[in-house]
Amino acid sequence: MPFQNRPHNFPLHADTSAVDDPYLAKPSLDGLVEIFFHDNLDFPRLERVQVDGVFDRNLVHSIQYNRPIMKFFVRTYGCQMNVADSNEMSRHLAARGLVETPDPDEASVMLVNTCTVRQHAEDRAFSEIGRLRRWKTKRPGRKVVVTGCAAERTKEYLEDRFPFVDLVVGAKSIENFAQMADRLLDRRETDEELDYAVPCIDDKVAAFVTIMRGCNYSCTYCIVPYVRGREIYHSMEQILSDVRDRVREGAREITLLGQTVNSYRSGENRFADLLRAVAAVDGVERVRFISPHPYYMTDRVIETMATVPEVCESLHLPVQSGSSAMLKAMARNYTREQYLSLVKKMRQAMPGMTLSTDIIVGFPGETEDDFRQTLSLIEEVQFDWGFIFKYSTREGTPAAKLESYPETLIEERHQRCLELVDRIALAKRSKLVGSEQDVLVEESSFGRTRTNYKVHINGRVAPIASGEEVRLRITNAQRATLEGELQNGNITFENFREKDNDHARA
Ligand code: 5AD
Ligand code: SF4
After folding, report:
1. Is the CB of 466 under 6 A from ligand 2?
2. Which of 33, 233, 249, 427 has the fewest CB atoms within 10 Å around its CB?
3. Distance (Å, rounded) from C-alpha 506 to C-alpha 501?
4. Which atom of ligand 1 is nearest to the CA of 358?
5. What's the CA-to-centroid distance between 184 and ligand 1, angstroms?
6. What's the CA-to-centroid distance between 112 and ligand 1, angstroms?
7. Tell me: the pLDDT tens digits for 82-134?
8. Which residue(s) pair with 270 in the sheet?
9. What is the pTM of this model?
């Protein structure tokens, strides 16, 4: 019987011998589960541990404690980079004995990770922080931590307007978060104890790994280079070690993250070399990356995508505008024609690939003709999906000195652009109905295709284990999330597994 099909109320024996991994459990031959604790952690008053979930690779899911411990809640605004930063900060807090909770009312530490790329994102984060004044007074010793890009941009203003905030960590200092959090948590004024805890495992099938921080570009609308600074690259060893950690925790798909992710370099190695190395890590079945800059989509990167089987044939490649005049005003470092020929080259190398993009409408000076060129580029490329942003003036950027358009004009262009992108996206999805797709299951009824469509799995008798790749027939594509069913809709979980095992034995 597969290990994860057994009931979860195993008898336990705890083994305090030293192992590298503080939260590893494995089944022993007699069917018992052994739990290993790190040798330099001691649990003075720990009386009971309870395993309430086990992954397919036999890791302990969570551990219950016999006394209250400090909990934290994380609210994240903005891009995937911020999501990855939040995960990293959560891991630091967990390693210090705090446990993440999905309920803000239970939390003693509230972490708000902010975004400033557009004014709207910043406003939302600030009103959330404002509401935390009351949250904080409800229980003594609560802490509010504000991090990220808006924190970097407005540190003094933040501290002035929200004096109850305990710690501000700007985006440039995220790598120092651990030490700063240590100092904050040392104050120990809370009503809960800060315990030694076994960190909760990040059990995601699809995990993010940050490979670089900052941006060396200076697109004229963009605040990112100011709040995140110049590019710094993690070493290949560090990245591969992070990838192995995520795989050990259950990840099968790795998304490499960076502001201009494909400008990565480390010694002699370039981004294509990193892609190959990550794809070669044992247990990695899929590799993706966001967000690339068109300038660094070199032939080697394209060839690597096309030939290394683990690298998925899907790309989010921000274009921002279809007008060469606007691209120049934005300092994007490519023309409309160069972008189009890049797309052609990629489609030749990867005929079934999906392509998505970011577009800004209403940049200062964008004429009706410039805007129509954006529409025509969208028609020509036939993006599979896209994100359309209304231009937002960011103080301190070069474009902020230019006169901006009235909101009504920007709104009108936004609507027209959205309609076109949505129409094309629907037409492209509709063509998938009836096709077969390999879907990597992330949760019991959700997964993703290699081309990065999210798929809801219909008609299952029993849930499919996350981390499995199954072949589905697409049955509905009306919404952004596709629907699909197993080709043999009647097979059950058990004989599906047996089929798999037979295959493995063959
Ligand atoms: N206004 C509107 N959109 C912006 N973006 C970045 N800066 C701005 C701005 N000032 C968009 C770009 C980028 C995405 C993450 O956000 O399209 O690709
Ligand atoms: Fe901003 Fe341009 Fe850097 Fe992207 S490449 S983060 S849009 S400056």
Report:
1. no
2. 427
3. 9
4. 17
5. 34
6. 21
7. 999 999 999 888 877 788 888 999 899 999 999 999 999 999 999 999 999 99
8. 265
9. 0.81
